[in-house]
UniProtKB/TrEMBL annotation:
Chain ranges passing through the membrane: none
Name of the protein described by the UniProt record: SAM-dependent methyltransferase
Domain of life: Bacteria
Alphabetic keyword roster: Methyltransferase, Transferase
Region annotation (Disordered) ranges: 1-24, 94-131
Polar residues bias locations: 1-14
Low complexity bias locations: 122-131
Amino acid sequence: MTPTLVRQHSSHAQATPHVDPRARARDWSEIQERMLVPLYEAVYERLDVGGDTRMLGLNCGSGLALLMAASRGAAVTGVDSRSPELLDLARRRLLSGTSGDPGADSTVSTRTRGDAPRIVQGTPGDAADPTAPAFTLVTAFEPGGCRAGDSETLGDLLARATPLAARGAAVVLAGWGPPERCATTSVLRVAAKLTDPTHGTGGWRPALRDDLEEVAQRAGLRPDGSGRVACPFGYADTGSAVRGLLSTGMFDAAVAATDRDQVDKELTEALHPYQRPDGTVWMPNVFRYLIARVR
């Protein structure tokens, strides 16, 4: 069935100066988003996502996690208030049943389901459908806890989303693993350094051990297990790595404080230790996920 795109006006929509939103959406969907595929797969395997799953994906972006759940038979709804460009890509992905990556060798086919995938531009409340059963799975795969204020933002999303979920439904939160096990940490420090050279702080900070648990607790959720997943970041070359990392938004504050050329230069230098003799870039990372339950 054809995925539904629901457009809602949202005061949370964000516009970042000096950024081409179409180029950013393309770089995210073609370069960066696939780095999190092992995380999506691990969570879906652990929760046995399938034909009985009704999933709500928060900050769904260009929809690769939704597509992978739909390929397992799940009925999926994605919601995001930030980027119409990303949501347009998500709709096209779910319509075509492909990853959207021009370099991909395979097609991810979605099974025929009674419920069409839905893509909603707005808040979780805008995704409410009083005629449909409650969601059995809510995912917040965007890594949290590493930018100023993102825990509060995630808490607000969960507060709006959990009333749409069934009692006992799984809520999955994701974040970076220990800094010493994430090679990308040294690259992300560029964001902090350029944002505030005096204090070395700014739009990024290392993830803390209990970040996810604290968000879940504030949202009134019951923790029910966690896990760690290797998610290496691999790029064809340094230029691709820079574009992919910039598409995350982690360096927006640094670009605003300096300029794009300076950020590109600093990122390229920080990536140098991870460049292989053939020009590719490889950074081993570990991501963490928390499974919590709606009370």
